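Changelog note: in this version the structure field was regenerated for every chain. One regenerated record is shown below for reference.
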Amino acid sequence: MKVDYWHNFQEGLFYHIYNHSSGEKNLFGNDHDYQDFLAKYNRYFSTLFDTYAYCLMPNHFHLIVQVRKKEMILAQINTAESSASLALYHNQTSLNEYIQDQFRRYFSSYTLAYNHRNKTRGQLFLKRMKRISFDPDAKLAYLICYAHHNPIHHRFAKSYEIWKYSSYQFYCHNEPAAIENMKRADEFISRDAERMHHQFRMDRAYEVHTNGDSYTLE
């Protein structure tokens, strides 16, 4: 049975969001690219998500988020920002459609800025961003560790400490987060670095079971 990597966004649910560069071009080439991506994330999603973890790597990224309650979103939404914002406010579009529209605008805005800075052209992101809902009691701690471990797994870094484009320092060293509305999952995960690493190593390959099926994300 084919696995669904494109779950609809619903209020209150947790999601693992993932996307990759299209072709051989990287998403990020320098500090400015990473910082711009995070700044734009704040612009488009600070009213929509509580973010529990993130990790950016040269050719892909991971986000662990919870969609906020719709009434909270509507109380903070800027209806002048886009026609989609106005449509959501007047209940003329679904929350899922609105969030997907925000991602399209987010990726487009970043791509335009990236191409201008780097004197390049063309698409950066894969068109279909993966997003998979999960039970936080079962998977939140593991997914946070998984996201932080990704630079080591893909050999972008040799240790957690030296990779600065993730929320690892926020969890283990109380450093300020680059993302607004970061949430610390203290009820699910240890704040001690060594215990966090051990917790991750005790798990097997990253595998989430949904209705009897399993899937793997890199």
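Spot check on this record: The chain has one domain: 14-204. Residues 202-217 have pLDDT under 50 and may be disordered.
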